[in-house]
Amino acid sequence: MSRRSAGRAGRAAGAGRRRGRHPVAALACVVALSGPVCLGVAGCSSGAPDGSGARHGTASDPHASQPAGGRPSLSDQGTAGSTHRRAPGHSRPAPRPSGRSYAPVGTGYAPYVSATAAAPSDSAGSPDVYNLAFANSRGGCTPGWAGRAIDDAGVRSRIGRLKDSGAAVRVSFGGLGGREPATTCTRAGTLAAAYGRALDAAGAGRADFDIEAGVLADHRATELRSAAMALLQKQRGTQVTLTLPVMPHGFNSDSLAVLKSAARHGVDVSAVNIMTMNYGTYYGGDMGSYAEKAARAAQRQMKQVFRLSDTSAWRHLAVTAMIGQNDVRNETFTLRDADRLRSFARSEGLAWVSLWSTARDRQCDGHDGDTAAASTTCSGVTQPPGAFARALAG
């Protein structure tokens, strides 16, 4: 979604959340055998089996500027579905998402999965697209999968099995604990080539950029990434999505800077995927309601940045929830919240919905450790296996 939360299967843990204009509450991370699990106020990303971090964190101040946290394909390679019909292109006054559009065919389901380790609930909900977490730098501009080489035979086999279901795959770069290549490469051309190597290794034409924590405020990396994304689209027609943290009142200035940079570089952004999670202690309560508020606020901001119509802005918006117990102890995303989010997404015509992560979509048992905190391997709530996937897929 990072990426993401304690449950993203396999993130390397890391670092706390983004910093806003106001002080950010402290958080504590403990390292579990399966990876770091983050406890505390602002939610940090927990580790998961693929060595990635968890979801973004935020401050307890509701007005703090937080460094941010399917079926309808709105660009030529589709956001979630694998079959789309082209709609006539249209002129636009400024770079905006989906210049090469296809008519949307419904709100899809595109969960985050570990690129390196299978989970029993991967196929629950019959995903349209799998978001592979994560491809990042192994040093300089050399990409890899959570410590493995980009052409690792085991990862290739894993991705092949995911595709055998008929779903597509999207390579996700970044996340909370990973070394996103834009922070280690120095030139747009070599950065685009690094992204391309990962896409080729996965046999994917879709790229997701999960930008959070300190990377979000790295404006040099933002500009370099935007230039590389534009090159990817010019050279190979790559479909691009941006995954960003959000608060119930919308994006902070750093997240908006990422969107504006993409627009300046003429990047065709197929969808902006918001991470509706880990807001901070002030926001304990109804996570389904907060997800809706965040989506409405983000949609208004996207309309302005990309000069979109009301309907088009909704069709370029995706939402990722951290299911069950979030990194912030007072935040629990329930199955009822999942039903509500799915209904909302369908009614507004969102591009797709997602969850962090398939490895967490099961009830904890005696082998999962402290289930009062967010776990990398279970949701922390009472549920049948795969229940969140089925609820969000509809």
Structure description:
The chain is of the alpha/beta class and 394 residues long. The protein has a single domain (27-393), classed as Alpha-Beta Barrel (TIM Barrel), CATH 3.20.20.80. The protein has helices at 153-163, 188-202, 219-236, 253-264, 287-306, 310-315, 335-348, 387-393, and strands at 27-32, 35-40, 108-109, 112-114, 129-137, 143-145, 148-149, 168-174, 206-210, 239-245, 269-276, 317-322, 324-325, 332-333, 352-356. The strands form 3 sheets. Strands 3, 4, 5, 6, 7, 8, 9, 10, 11, 12 and 15 form an 11-stranded mixed sheet that branches. A two-stranded antiparallel sheet has the order 1-2. A hairpin with a 5-residue loop joins strand 5 and strand 6 (143-145). Helix 3 runs parallel beside helix 4, helix 4 (253-264) packs parallel to helix 5 (287-306) and helix 5 runs parallel beside helix 7 (335-348). The protein starts with 26 loop residues before the first strand and ends with a helix. 65% of the residues are buried.
Mean pLDDT: 79
| DSSP, total strands | 15
CATH superfamily: Glycosidases
Count of individual domains: 1
How helical, in percent, are the residues?
Answer: 25-40%
Classified by CATH, the class is: Alpha Beta
CATH-scheme architecture: Alpha-Beta Barrel
- Globular, elongated, flat, extended or rod-shaped: what is the shape? globular
Number of helices: 8
Q: The CATH topology is what?
A: TIM Barrel
Pick out the low-confidence regions: 1-104
Q: Topology as H/E string?
A: EEEEEEEHEHEHEHEHHEEEHEH
Largest sheet: 11 strands, mixed
Radius of gyration: 18 Å
Distance between the termini: 20 Å
Task: Report the sheet-strand fraction.
Answer: 15-25%
Q: Which structural class do the helices and strands define? A: alpha/beta
